Amino acid sequence: MDKILRINMGAEGGPKATEEPLRDYSGLGGRALTSAVISKEVDPLCHPLGENNKLVIAPGLLSGTTGAMSGRISVGCKSPLTGTIKEANAGGQASQVLARLGYAAIVLEGKPKDDTLYKVFINKDGVKITPDNGLKMLGNYDLVDKIKGEYGDKIACICIGPAGEMKMSAASVACTDMELRPTRHAGRGGVGAVMGAKGVKVIVLDDTGMKMRSPKDPEKFKEANKAWVEGLKKHPVSGEGLPAYGTNVLTNVINEAGGYPTKNFKLGRFDTCQKISGETQAETETARGGSATHGCHRGCVIKCSGIYVDKDGNYLTKQPEYETVWAHGGNCGIDDLDSIAMLDRLDDDYGLDTIEMGATIGVAMEAGLAKFGDAEAAINLVKEVGKGTPLGRILGNGAAVTGKVFGVERVPVVKGQALPAYDPRAIHGIGVTYATSTMGADHTAGYAVATNVLNVGGSVDPLKPEGQVELSRNLQIATAAVDATGMCLFVAFPVLDQPDTFQALIDMINAFYGLNLNADDVTELGKSILKNERDFNTRAGFTAQHDRLPEFFKKESLPPHNLTFQVKDEDLDTFFNW
Amino acid sequence: MVKAEVGSTIESLLCQQLGLSPEYVENRIQTIFLDGKPVDNVDSATVKEGSTLALSAALPGLAGATLRRGGYYAPMRSQISHREEAAPEPHHEGMIFLKLFNLLLKELGPSFLKRGIWVKGKDLSDLFKRQPDDFWAGCKGVKLDGEKIDLKRLKEINWADRNVFLQVKPH
């Protein structure tokens, strides 16, 4: 992983690939690398769909190794949804395969001269870029089937569906899973639209003949990885809860807490949420012959995913995650798991962010385009997006655009990006992260619950008003660092609770790269990533005034706790003071 | 619903009345809600007549960490945290609503069912109506008020608004 592949899609005579050493980007991976490239090389004032934007695809620092849980891939660009810098990441096989092919990143640059659509094939012998208009407007599932027919099944794909081709701001970049299904998405911020603007439909990766990446100190790495796996398996979250129920284990509990945004953030509880809970979902999958425990990439030991089959036992989609079940479920008043699974399947096939689409349908329901709870209408609205009808184009550009077009006041977005599944009026600290994240509203921006282990930012006095801001800041620093490693964020709990597991992670990085990092170095890495991102956003015209939740969170109280969001603007403004 | 001596602390209810070990409560029950509010201290939070007590194992993600009792991130939801404000209720027998989530449902559910729980009639009717054939095949016998009845009758009985005491015994 010592080189960067740049593909200039606008080169004279057609797309041109060049390889170069890492130079200034040496030692960076995942989000650290994507944000460094975007911050340094992209004009913050450029049009996100224009030739001056770049799409950077980067495996994590430990991807392509035998290290468990190291299969996250980062996709970065200037976002067409938010106008800010963007990093969205995904699981699946692509990260491991791309890393084994030796690439620290693929950078798509420029813009094709016409609307020709290209496929990129990368293997040990090099890179081949071919025009293939026969792929136009194929859904991700049909696309991957076609590619499989051409290249066999020992591949991984990074691809876009029709939403990406139509340059919709809710478009995702899909990565194939172990079964070569396009189920893992770098969903947020419209990264798929940027790939579409570059004219690339699919990047096919074949690592046949390539070996696992070798550590500088193989024995120490093996030892650390063993301790790492043991730590993950023995913790009740990563070793029991997530494998049994997936992330949807959160539905019942967030609902109980009164923080489950329901019917476009009108209520904090959904009366029939148990019908779509992780417990019900796992039982349904198992009873029908699907699976409630499944990994998204080789080397995953948590296995928080699953296989969702229909009533006849036929594959429908992967196990929808908590965010998806919430967005298309409770947020739209829908309590039917089969309908939610169908919406997940459609999103994956069209290449759409499930959070953005669920929030958008919620806003559309608020506008009267459908009734809350009408699953069939929700499915039809998403199909409009896939077809690219005028209504579909509006919806496919996200909740903010839809809210504007239909005159809706309650539009749950920050910097144009839809809020995820935790109402900030019940859990204020998460609201701080939504408001201040460099990415727009993003729960994963402050997800790495290991800040006390890392000792990020020193001690916090939670009783002071600035305590919430301090906690959120520290979480975001820690998360940015984890996003650079390629590690799945679900490792955070064992890292939080078990100091030996945290040490094993540091030992793995050190053994692999021959380094001597400590917790302070990891913290510095996180800070530097956030600084790069903040700097880009500032140059793009974003100020502290953009670090705000929508007004309705301050004036509409949320039952059952009947609270508004109470963190003051002046406290939010201290977020980047470090 | 379960009958319990209300006015007790959660710790006393779970360990002394419901028979859970203090280790299990400490290590396994990581997230607790009393009337929808996350609880940090089981030694001081008291259960009242009609309270809803919800129990969960540890949960993933920031929300999981935030809702965890006494956790490092508990301040992030301080506005909804349980606070023991009202004067203590005198101890007496009463009814509380108990919810078991995720891993705890599997681990504690069978023993609660064996001990017996109170269920609202409509909920019980709905439960019976949505059970597949496998469920009924697994039922070896039914007693209603001490008298053996035909299994098929269970789905037909109109339980109306009554609270029904339900016991499930393994065979």
Describe the structure.
Chain A folds into 3 domains: 3-205, Aldehyde ferredoxin oxidoreductase, N-terminal domain (Aldehyde Ferredoxin Oxidoreductase,  A, domain 1, 4-Layer Sandwich); 247-418, Aldehyde Ferredoxin Oxidoreductase Protein, subunit A, domain 2; 428-572, Aldehyde Ferredoxin Oxidoreductase Protein, subunit A, domain 3 (Orthogonal Bundle), CATH 1.10.599.10. In chain A, 40% of the residues lie in helices and 14% in strands. Chain A contains 23 helices and 17 strands. Chain A has helices at 30-41, 94-100, 140-151, 162-165, 191-197, 218-234, 236-245, 250-256, 278-287, 322-328, 337-350, 354-366, 375-387, 390-395, 398-405, 428-436, 451-454, 466-485, 492-497, 499-513, 519-539, 552-555, 569-572; strands spanning 3-8, 16-21, 55-59, 73-78, 85-90, 103-109, 118-123, 126-131, 156-159, 173-175, 184-186, 200-205, 291-294, 305-309, 315-318, 413-414, 417-418. A 6-stranded mixed sheet of chain A has the order 2-1-6-3-4-5. In chain A, strands 8-7-12-9-10-11 form a 6-stranded mixed sheet. Chain B has 171 residues and is of the alpha+beta class. Chain B has 2 domains: 1-112, no CATH class; 116-171, no CATH class. Chain B has helices at 10-17, 22-27, 61-67, 102-115, 121-129, 133-138, 153-156, and strands spanning 2-6, 31-34, 37-38, 52-56, 92-100, 117-120, 142-144, 147-149, 163-166. A 5-stranded mixed sheet of chain B has the order 1-5-4-2-3. Chain B is globular and about 55 Å long. The relative contact order of chain B is 0.17.
